[in-house]
Amino acid sequence: MSTPALVLENQPVCNICYKKPQDAVSLPCQHQFCRACIKNHIVNSVEAQKFQGFGCPACQEFVSKPIMAGSRPKEQWAEYLPTVTLSDNKPDLLSSEKDELKCAACKEAGLDNAATLWCQQCNDSYCPDCSASHRNFPATRSHVQVPIAYISPRDKSEEDLATCSQHKDSRVEFYCAACDLLICPSCAFVNHRRCEKVSTIKGATDVAKGDLSTKIKRVRKKSSECQAMLVDSNSRIRELQISRQRTEDNIKGFTDQLMDTISANRDNMLSNISYSFNTEETRLKQTETKLREHIVELEGCEQGMENLLNTNSETKLLANLSKTQRKYNASLEKEIRPEELVPFQMEFEPNTSLLDVLDSSQLGEAVLERETREKQETARRDEKTENNSDEPRDLMKHIKSKAKEKKTTKQKVKFKKSKRSKRRGSEGNPVLPVPITPPPQEPRVDKIKVLQKHKTVSTDVLGDSLKSSASSIIVLFVNGVMTTVVADHNNYSLKSFYVNMGLDRQSKMSMDSKPCHVAKLAAHTVVVTMTRLKRIAVVKVSPGLSLIDRIRTSKYYNCITALAEDRLAVGTTLESSVSIDIIDLEGEILHSICSDPDDQLLFSEPKFMILSPSGNLLVSDRDIPYISCFTQAGKLVFKTGPKQTSDLEGTSGLFCSEDDQIYISDKTNNRILLMQDNGETITTFLTAEQGVEQPQGLFIDDLDQVYICQANSKISIFKEVEIIAPK
């Protein structure tokens, strides 16, 4: 008869590390080992590869490689050895009266005896007498029995004691992904021997958890995109309302100069326009409601997968995996296209012949056009520029000129003519149109477009202790306002300048250290590097300035440019090894660029860096007047040499336009240079005669206005104007 002392002596111990097995596995000779220990033994075994097996470290009995391992290398054999469940808890710490187990054999005989021992192979509890009988049977003589105190409540729970559906007396140890079944070793070696996707429960659980984690990230990303679309929807509705007001004002301004005889026609036109806008606004609000419902559905799917991911039961996780997969697929199949959030644009195009013959034509047309976001942004910028112009505009002349332009109408809403337009003469005869004599044409004058200094902005603001020094500049279009952002090195601050309600305004934000360079990260967000600080500031422009975050980095950085909304390219400074690092918004270095794969020198000490439209990096050095262009992987595209930059002592600013034209500030010679054809051709773009004085940072906005930071604390803005060509 077995005694508790004998059972304690027979408690399984790994015969390699002589400790309680961790993630225990069993060999056919019934010796048990840690999975990691037996894996190292198999890898170091000389006969493993030759004889497709290995010797037991305890008894040296030859063990063939697991059948389920197939043709996999010996490093993976340990994953397919049978698992033995052992408790990690100490004796007598987890047992209590409410957790007391009864003897399984006595329970079948109708007795109620407390169990003291646990059979790890049968997963049943026995009293001392039944345990002795259990050990005397030849079939169960080799079974390992341990005290109940050594078994954790998790091992005793019925949830993790799942048995095979084909062999009721066998516990499941494997999972067949092809058949989506939990199976015992017998099923794995016989019924599912041809299935390729058979693994241990632990291995399958790890794969499932990893897959769920990936899907949760995708759902979160999708939810974030929908949230952004929802915010964009609110902005679009406001834009639609502004567009409505603007269109109505144009119509009213036109009709106020017409005779009272067309008032009925005007009312009819306004009614149709109101209906069109109301219909479009209703459609956008319905799309917004769909977005909210989709977000709630995605959040529910995310919560369900998180609950399944955090469950302690591996069998429960695998049992509910298919159901969760269906919910996940259903959530991602629903898609709301961003185009559904873009409203139509309506412009009023009057029939100017009404000014001469009021009764023979309809009032006009309202043009409905659903444009892309880029066209809408350009239209808003053009309108802002026109509104800020100092020249007065005559409404009627503007309407006439707009009517003569080439129409790009995609859809037109026709309005019915007023009954008054069919008015006849006093004798019943129709009113005949009066012939119009065209005005004499003026002689043709040839004109050319040139850049002229349009405006000068001072970067000195109230509270500055020193004369400002702006060496880096960026221009953003924020909430309908053109906003200029500069980094003031001398006053440890970031500044923005804009026009609001016809008045020049500015905003100033103090920095932790001297700001070096500023770059655009998103539509309303910029990033700023700082001297002698391993930080990058993320600032919101609205058009006032407010700090959003500080990115902590492992190096000191100087020049910066944004590759995407989640990746930055930064150049090192004050470091032993010079490099350009690609980092994320957490400050982690994704990869570094030090030299070209062909061992060509790309840069010596980066001073300015920008991103070209093709995605390449353009870098100018601090002391060497060369410009390098290379890919984000570090492959050289081109590099200027002494032939192109013979009279260039150094660059003080760098900018690349959408058509790959590179502009260089030459502070020493008071000029702006233009580089074309991959650095082969360099010409003069602006000179001191045109108003350039010690240029530093420069920027060109979408209206082709050139902004130049100068050493005299001024920003010179150059604009293209038409002048009479010299004869």
UniProtKB/TrEMBL annotation:
Keywords assigned: Metal-binding, Zinc, Zinc-finger
Highest rank taxon of the organism: Eukaryota
Occurrences of domain B box-type (ranges): 98-148, 159-201
Biased amino acid composition, Basic and acidic residues: 367-397
Molecular function per GO: ubiquitin protein ligase activity; zinc ion binding
Every RING-type domain range: 14-60
Transport listed as a keyword: no
Biased composition (Basic residues): 398-423
Matches recorded under SUPFAM superfamilies: B-box zinc-binding domain, NHL repeat, RING/U-box
Keyword Zinc-finger appears in the UniProt entry: yes
Location of region: Disordered: 365-443
Matches recorded under InterPro entries: 6-blade_b-propeller_TolB-like, TRIM45/56/19-like, Znf_B-box, Znf_C3HC4_RING-type, Znf_RING, Znf_RING/FYVE/PHD, Znf_RING_CS
Protein name per its UniProtKB record: Uncharacterized protein
